[in-house]
Amino acid sequence: MGGLADAAARRSRTNPAAVVAVAALCVILVLTWLGPWISPNNSQTLDWLHIAARPGMQSSHWFGTDRLGRDLFVRTLAGTRVSIAIGLAASIISLLVGVSYGAIAGYIGGRTDHLMMRLIEILSGLPLIFFVIFLTVIFGRSEYLLFFAIGAVGWLTMARIVRGQALSIRQREFIEAAIASGAGTGRIILRHVVPNVIGPVIVYATLTVPQIILFESFLSFLGLGIQEPGASLGTLIAEGAGEMEAAPWILLVPGSFLAVLLLCLNIFGDGLRDALDVKDG
Amino acid sequence: MVPTLSVDRLRISFSHRTGIIEAVDGVSFSIAPSECVGLVGESGSGKTQIFMAAMGLLDGNAQVSGSVRFEGNELLRVDGPTLNRVRGSQLTMIFQDPMTSLTPHLTVGTQLAEVMVTHLGMPWKDARSFAGRMLERVHVPEPKRRLTQYPHELSGGMRQRVMIAMSLLCEPSLVIADEPTTALDVTIQAQIIELLRAVRGEFGMALVLISHDLAVVAGLADRILVMYAGSVVENAITGELFKHPRHPYTAELLKCMPSVTGPRLDRLPTLAGQPPRPGEVLEACPFAPRCPRAADRCRVERPQLEGSSTSQVACHFPLTA
User: Inter-chain contact A174–B100, Cβ cutoff 8 Å?
Assistant: First the structure.
C-alpha cells in the first residue's frame, strides 16, 4: 500500500480545496475535544442571569445562550462531538460489514451472490424511519441503538459497491494466477480482492460520514435520536428552529457548524477520490 | 515408473446458450519425469483448456470427463483444499501475460514469499530471503531491490522472470508454461526461452510448453503434441516431427514457417480455410475440409490417434518418410 498512499499524498497537495477542508476538519476536531477546557461554562448548567443572551465577548458566553441559559459554544461543540462519533462509528460498522459481505458475494458469485444480493434488496426496501422507530420502541432510546440502526442500514450501499468491484476483479488474471499458486478462497478474498477495492471503498466511506451525520441530525430533529440534556447538532438545530425569530443565533450557531462540517467532509471525500484514482499495471 | 502427468480420454465441454461446445475432445497423453513436451495448436484448439482443467481453473459452465493424474493422484473432481496441496508447489503454471498475472498492490517480494509461507510453512523472513536468491537464479538484476518493488515498476520481461521464479520456489515436478513469450517482444522472447532451458537443466522438472508458435517450441521440447480442433493429431519426437511430419496438418504448418536459408518468398504460404467452429459435432476427420490428401473415407470416419508412444498420428493416410 505504500506506493498508493505516497501517490495519493503527492496528488492531494495539488488540490488546495481538499487541503483547506482537511485543515478545517482538524480545527473542528481539536475544538470539540478542547472546548470544555477553553470555555469556563458547562454544557448542562443553567445561567439564570443570561437567558437567550446574544453572542458577544462581554460575558463568557461567546456564542450566546439558549432559552434555558445554557452556553451555546460548549453545547455546540459537545453536539458536534456526538455527531462526529455517530458518523464515524456507523461508517466503521458499514465498512466492516459491507466490505466483507460484498467481497464474498462478488468473489464467490453464482447462486451465493444471487441469494446475498436479494437479501440486500429486501433490507434496502425497508423504510428506514419506521425501522428506527420500531427499534426505539422495542429497545428504548440510547446512543448505541442509534449507532447500530444507522450502521445496519448504511452497509447496504457499501456492499453493493464492493460486490460490483469484486465481480470485475474476479475476472482478472492475477486472481487466476493466485488460484493456480494454491491460495485458498479466504486468502484470495483477503489478500487479492479486498486490497484492490480499497480505493473506491475509502472514498465512499468518507462520503458516508456526512450522510450519516445528516441522517442522525434528521432523526434527532424528529425527536428519535439523542435526548435532552444530551445534545447533537440535530437536536440543537431543532431547538433553535423554535426560537428562530426571537433568537436566531440559537439556530445559526449549530446550523453553521453542521454546514461547515458536511462541506469539509464532502470536499475531503471528493479530493480523496481524485487522489486515489491510481492506474495499476 | 509413474508418469508425472497422465491425461486419459479427457473431454471438456462448455454449455453455452447456443448449445454445448466441445473444447477438448477425448485427449490422452502422458508426460514422463523431467521431460519437456511442447503443445502446439492454433487459437481455440483446446490446448490451454487441458491444463486449466488440471489446475482447477475451468469456468463454472465447464463439464469434464476422463482423468488427469499428477504423479498418480487424480486432479479432476477433487475439492479446492486437496488441489491446493499440489498446485503452486509441485504443479505450477506460468501465465501468458506477465503484465496482469501479478497482483498490483503487493510487492514482488511479498508475492513470492507468500507461496512458500503457504506451502512450506516457512517464516516470512526466511521466505523473503529465499525469494531474493530465487530471483538471482532467474537472472533478475538487483534482486534485493526488486523484492521491495511493485509489479508496475518492472518491465514485461522482468515480470515474466518473476513469474518463472515464482513457479520454481517449491521445486516443482511439473511446470506448465502457457504461451510464456506471446506477450513479450521478440528479443525478450529469446531471453525467456533461454532462461526456461537453463532452469530446466538446473531444476530437472518436467515442462509443458504451450504455444501457437512452432519455432518457440522447437528449440526446447523433447517431444511435440500437435492439436487441431480439440484433439491431438500428431505426437512425435521434435527432430522427427520437423524432418518427417506425418499428419498433413503438421506438414502444412511447417510449410508456413519462413526459412532463413531457403529461397526468398514474396508471400508466406498460408493454410486455406478455417478450423471447424467449436460446437460442430464431427463424424468426419476435422481437418478433412482443408486437407490436400483428403479422400472419401476422411469425410465419414474420424481417425484415431495410433502408433507407438513416441510416434502417433491421427490420420487415415499419413505421410510416410
Answer: yes
pLDDT tens-place string over residues A8-37 = 666 666 778 888 888 888 888 888 888 777
Q: In this structure, is residue A50 part of a structural domain?
A: no
Q: For residue B33, count other CB atoms closer than 10 A to its CB.
A: 15
CATH of domain B31-59+78-221: 3.40.50.300
Does A45 fall in a domain?
no
The answer to whether residue A270 sits within a structural domain is yes
In this prediction, does ipTM exceed 0.90? no
Using CA atoms, how far apart are residues B24 and B218, in angstroms rounded to an integer? 24
Contact status of A7 with chain B (Cβ, < 8 Å): no
Query: Which secondary structure element, helix H or strand E, spans residue B13, and what is its range?
Result: strand B5-16
Q: Sheet with B73-74: list strands edge to edge.
A: B19-31, B5-16, B62-70, B73-74
Per-residue pLDDT reduced to its tens digit, A201-258: 888 888 788 888 888 878 877 777 777 777 888 888 888 888 888 788 888 888 898 8
Say if A63 falls within a structural domain: no
Could you list the residue range(s) of the whole structural domain that residue A228 is in?
2-35+70-276
Contact A82, A231 (CB under 8 A): yes
User: What mean pLDDT do residues B35-53 have?
Assistant: 89
Q: Do A195 and B60 touch (CB under 8 A)?
A: no
CATH 3.40.50.300, chain B: domain bounds: 31-59+78-221
- Is residue B66 within 8 A of residue B26, CB to CB? The reply is yes
pLDDT higher than 70, residue A3: no
Confidence (pTM): 0.77
Hey, of B93, B101, B210, which one would you mutate to test binding to chain A, going by the most A CBs within 10 A of its CB?
B101
Contacts of B166 in chain A (CB under 8 A): 181
